[in-house]
Records
---
Amino acid sequence: MTAISERSSSNPAGLVGFCRRAIKLPEDIPFSLVQLAARVAVAHVFWQSAQSKLASWPVTLQLFANEYNLPFIDPSIAAPMATAVELTGSVLIFFGLFSRVAALMLLGVVSVIQIFVYPENWAEHLLWASLLLLVLTRGAGVVSLDCFFERILRWGN
């Protein structure tokens, strides 16, 4: 092959080349931006859930007692525990602090909701779990307190 034909086959011009470059364009999005978006999105879901529980605590207790039907745990314990985990987990995930632990805690909440409360909402739960699994397996990313403190600890050594 000549140099011209090699170059044209690896980087074709015209419409085909434009389409190939356009398809690959999202690969230039920094992964840390994807991690940040995942954290903010999932934090918002659980923050809103906790806020709605706190806005009407008597209704929350009734839901845990009558609708959610969680086995093995008293509703008067489950309601504050779920609210605390949602509040704590959403704040930690948002700031990217102890984010893997927070993701694991919130995955537990998602699992309980999926198995015992609203199994028919599996698609929504799968979306939440996917975002949380991203944080659990890949971390909070560059724009996080986890990364900030990790740099400080490395700098000190």
---
Amino acid sequence: MQFTSERRLDDGVLEREFTLDEIPGILWTPASVSPPASEPVSASAPVPLILLGHPGGLGRMYPRLVDRARHSAAEGFASATIELPGSGDRPRSAVAEQARADLRRVLAAGEPVGDEIVDRLILPLVEQAVPEWRTTLDALLALPEIGGPVGYSGGVIAIGTRLAVVEPRISAAILFAGSFVPRALFEEARQVTIPLHVLLQWDDEGNDRQAALDLFDAFGSEEKTLHANMGGHTGVPRFAGDAAAQFLTRHLK
């Protein structure tokens, strides 16, 4: 992991951009474990970590990501995110680009989105993104200011589902239901056992509501909560975000 920039936000949160195997990312740490560079980090200071998932495009998503990170820092958590494969300045995939074009065409025509398009769009993304997240987690937990436990918060929900299955260091997850889910992931969902808090926008124009409900039903976790709100994809009310933050505070502290 190579840090490429560093700046202090007005609330004391330290924001550092990094690259790892040519993958760009951002790490935010609370002021309590982010002293000036001239001062050592206390060995007793490590804080829990939240991995911030998103649908791709760090530049476009930055305002929402930094807002989530600052709220997490206020609770004493570090937060980190990485760019998704094929997004931002990362190389494009011809298969994914064709799948996106097919998806836009089907949606514009008002036709149902078939499993074949969803598989072409999402499965390769999951297969590449999940190992990248795990490698990033290795590097983040090697930093002296970051310890466990670890939580995941965000989308793409298929990525969060796979991570919840294969990554034992993740103790709890907030999953954003706002993206298509391949049918193969429903079987994996039955293997998820960590506590879950799922956010669903009832009128999300780009989401299959019934598929999201079916996925929630498939999750094998004994503790799972579905928080559904009226409104479109970007209309998550502040109180819903507050409830999600309380969920992670309960499980990571």
